[in-house]
Design a protein that fits this description.
Blueprint (H helix, E strand, L loop, with lengths): L4 H6 L14 E3 L5 H11 L7 E3 H9 L1 H4 L19 E2 L2 H9 L9 E2 L1 H23 L11 H21 L11 H27 L9 H25 L3 H7 L1 H5 L4 H8 L3 H14 L15 H11 L5 E3 L6 E5 L2 E4 L1 E3 L3 H11 L7 H6 L5 E2 L13 H13 L5 H5 L9 H4 L9 H11 L8 E9 L3 E9 H35 L4 E6 L5 E2 L7 H4 L4 E12 L5 E10 L6 H18 L5 E6 L9 H8 L1 H5 L2 E6 L9 H18 L9 H11 L4 E5 L1 H15 L13 E4 L5 E5 L9 E4 L7
Parallel strand pairs: 8-9, 12-16, 15-18, 16-17
Antiparallel strand pairs: 1-2, 3-4, 5-8, 6-7, 10-11, 12-14, 13-14, 14-15, 17-19, 19-20, 20-21
Helix pairs in contact: 10-13, 12-13, 17-21, 20-21, 23-28
Length: 749
């Protein structure tokens, strides 16, 4: 790409991406007059510039002051680079400095030493600079006409002659500033007075009385001090709160000043003066006004806001062992990461509860201590949704201010419903609507302009790469990814909402069971050998959360945790977990007849043809009816993560507290420790032998199972019979299935 005029003049590289994210050249006429003048001063350009690239525009205008890291040393006196106590030089200051022969560009920085030197120069020559700007031929060093100058010299001669006669030193006017002249005059007058008084006393041989002006001087001094105090108070009042103003106004109120006098002296309102006078009368000097209590929120609204922060749609439990917050003595809460900023969360709250009157500041103040924002300690996130994240990265790289939710509105109907979000609606605007909007945003770009952005990609492994593409290709990719994001985002919200409602509205004979494999726990030993650190044993932690009702219709939340030394995490392990969960329910809650499973869509664990076949045989195997719903891809975080994190945190803490014995080094030891020391969680153990035995049992049952087409797009599965017939739905709340399929035969109906 061609170099710009600034790059040619300064002999520097153009189109660098250090401070901008794209390459482009624009005409110099597009700059404002102020920016154009600054550019000429900072580049020392004496000829007309025609073009400027985005890089030089950033370097010489937007980031010029930021790039000045040291004093520019106009006197060439610094032996080392000075980087402290720097101040930016303004355009006016640079002109004054230039008048004295020193060259400092506006935007450069000066240290304290150079500023002091230049300040003196400014004090001496600022008036001359201003006069030189107004007129060119007039001599401004002459302060008097010749006649006035002669008259002044005659007066000085007469005074000095008189001073000589009475024995006083003559007048000296050289090197006297404005303030020094006043002081010198008072001092000279006092000496003349004392000399004349002494001579009169000698001639008359009497003692003349001392002048009684000490009281007058004291009054004047106090008056000056009071004026200074009033000025200080006035300056403080201008930048403080109303409460602080009223408190400070009790000072003049204590002097019994009138209301009008206080208003005029301190430039305050009549209301503030009246409040200050009443406050002084009632409570005394510098009393603090009582705070005004606004309208109080009801406890129900406060509780509603706190619960809103903890909804799975708005925040998610952090799974780490250290992701806890102490809220009392030995009372801990799992941290929840808020999935957006507080302003966006407040907007979501107002959309859901439009009639509740609560401001943003109050809403933010009610955030529970354990609901943390991204960026806080321990909020490094993994396992985020790449579909959402890639769109966000693409929008950020393009420099758009809009969020992806706002861009989605260009290609769906207003008040979009299920058909719109799943891309089945014929009335939705075409993608051309979004393309036109994006092209308008890029109207200042040329076709050859390059835009850079980051993307997550998966080949042999998942990694973030830096992409460069033209504006046209960027628009195509963004439209394509948004088109895929719309159904994904809808399914994610729909499944989370369905799960939330199901937990509260399920019938008394239905148990809602959410489950997820936690990260394997690696056994930790205090003072462990080096070789063990790199080859430690581990075990499977599988949390389960059961939501159901007892026979009195009281809601119950029952946390379970399965511990096993089997690490395969396959369908056999899932079947053993189901066996333990159903056995627990039948033993403790025999009125339960239905189970609704909820989990993420991991194909190796839950969402596969073998698990679907086991689901068809669930009632036959466990005497309980069942169906299975799945969260959207990468959106399966539930309270199960909190159970796993709690277990691993407490087990690790126990091991680190033991120095020589009672270390937790096996699955059985971990299981026994958890049963005894961790309350409110029911623990169960599954041995590797039991999983291997189940695997052999299931092998013959599952060998003829065929893959259900479109498994990835479907999120609810309900068995029709125990012969492999199953119905699948796009989302759990759909009344009619999207597909009926026989897992054992190549036949659909």
């Amino acid at each position: 790409m061609e170099k710009c005029s600034v790059g040619k003049f300064t002999h520097s590289d153009c189109h660098l991406l250090n401070y901008v994210n794209r390459k482009a050249i624009q005409a110099i006429e597009k700059l404002s007059e102020t920016d154009l003048n600054l550019l000429k001063l900072r580049t020392d350009s004496n000829y007309e510039l025609k073009t400027i690239c985005l890089h030089h525009q950033s370097v010489f205008l937007k980031n010029y002051e930021f790039l000045q890291k040291a004093c520019c040393d106009p006197f060439k006196k610094h032996k080392t680079t000075i980087k402290k106590m720097l101040r930016v030089v303004t355009v006016e200051q640079s002109r004054i400095i230039l008048y004295k022969g020193f060259k400092v560009k506006p935007g450069q920085k000066l240290c304290a030493s150079c500023r002091n030197k230049l300040l003196k120069i400014k004090q001496i020559d600022e008036s001359n600079v201003q006069n030189s700007l107004n007129t060119e031929d007039e001599d401004h060093d002459v302060e008097f006409t010749p006649a006035e100058l002669l008259q002044k010299r005659n007066v000085i001669a007469e005074l000095n002659s008189s001073f000589h006669e009475i024995g006083c030193s003559p007048m000296k006017l050289h090197a006297l500033g404005e303030h020094s002249r006043s002081f010198y005059g008072k001092e000279k007058l006092q000496r003349v007075h004392e000399t004349v008084k002494e001579k009169i006393q000698n001639v008359l041989e009497v003692d003349l009385p001392e002048e009684k002006n000490d009281v007058e001087k004291s009054v004047i001094k106090k008056s000056e001090d009071l004026d200074k105090l009033a000025d200080i108070i006035k300056n403080e009042l201008s930048g403080t709160s109303r409460r602080k103003q009223i408190q400070m106004l009790t000072i003049p109120a204590s002097l019994m000043w009138s209301r009008r006098k206080i208003k005029e002296a301190f430039n305050v309102s009549d209301y503030s003066v009246r409040k200050a006078q009443k406050l002084f009368k009632d409570q005394g000097f510098l009393a603090e006004p009582a705070r005004r209590n606004g309208k109080q929120l009801s406890p129900d609204i406060i509780e509603l806001v706190k619960k809103f922060y903890q909804l799975d749609e708005q925040s998610r439990i952090l799974p780490g062992m250290k992701d806890v917050v102490s809220i009392g003595k030995k009372v801990y809460e799992r941290k929840r990461l808020i999935l957006c900023n507080l302003s966006e969360l407040y907007s979501s709250f107002k959309l859901e509860y439009p009639n509740l009157k609560i401001g943003l500041s109050k809403f933010c103040s009610l955030r529970p201590k354990w609901c943390v924002l991204a960026g806080a300690s321990g909020t490094h996130l993994v396992c985020v949704c790449t579909i959402h994240q890639n769109v966000i990265l693409l929008i950020h790289g393009a420099g758009f201010e809009k969020e992806y939710k706002q861009l989605m509105s260009y290609i769906v109907c207003e008040g979009a419903g299920r058909e719109c979000m799943l891309r089945h609606c014929d009335k939705c605007p075409s993608k051309d609507n979004l393309v036109q909007f994006l092209q308008a945003k890029f109207e200042d770009y040329d076709d050859e302009d390059i835009v850079e952005y980051n993307q997550w990609v998966s080949t042999d492994r998942t990694e973030m790469i830096r992409c460069s593409t033209s504006v046209g290709e960027l628009i195509e990719k963004l439209v394509e990814k948004l088109n895929k994001l719309i159904p994904h985002s809808y399914i994610a919200k729909s499944q989370s909402s369905f799960f939330k409602n199901l937990k509260g509205t399920a019938s008394s004979n239905t148990a809602v069971v959410s489950m997820d494999f936690s990260e394997n726990y690696a056994f930790t030993i205090q003072d462990e050998a080096q070789g063990y650190h790199w080859n430690s044993n581990s075990c499977t932690i599988h949390p389960v959360m059961i939501h159901c009702k007892d026979t009195s219709n009281v809601k119950l939340i029952i946390p379970l945790c399965i511990i096993s030394d089997d690490l395969k995490r396959d369908v056999s392990m899932v079947y053993e977990i189901q066996k333990n969960v159903t056995g627990f329910l039948k033993e403790n809650y025999p009125h339960i007849t239905n189970i609704h499973y909820f989990s993420d869509g991991c194909a190796g664990q839950y969402k596969n043809k073998y698990n679907f076949m086991n689901l068809c045989l669930h009632e036959k195997d466990f005497k309980l009816k069942a169906q299975w719903s799945f969260f959207a891809t990468s959106h399966g975080k539930t309270e199960c993560d909190g159970i796993g994190g709690t277990v691993k945190r407490l087990a690790r803490k126990q091991s680190l507290q033991q120095h020589l014995d009672r270390q937790i080094t096996t699955t059985n030891e971990l299981f026994e420790f958890c049963k005894v020391n961790i309350a409110n969680i029911t623990f169960q153990h599954i041995s590797k032998e039991a999983v291997d035995s189940t695997s052999l049992t299931l092998e013959s049952r599952l060998k003829d199972t065929q893959t259900l087409p479109g498994t990835r797009l479907l999120h609810n599965f309900q068995p029709i019979d125990d012969l492999g017939m199953i119905e699948a739905r796009r989302i759990s709340r759909d009344e009619t299935p999207a597909l009926n399929f026989n897992l054992l035969k190549h036949q659909n109906y």
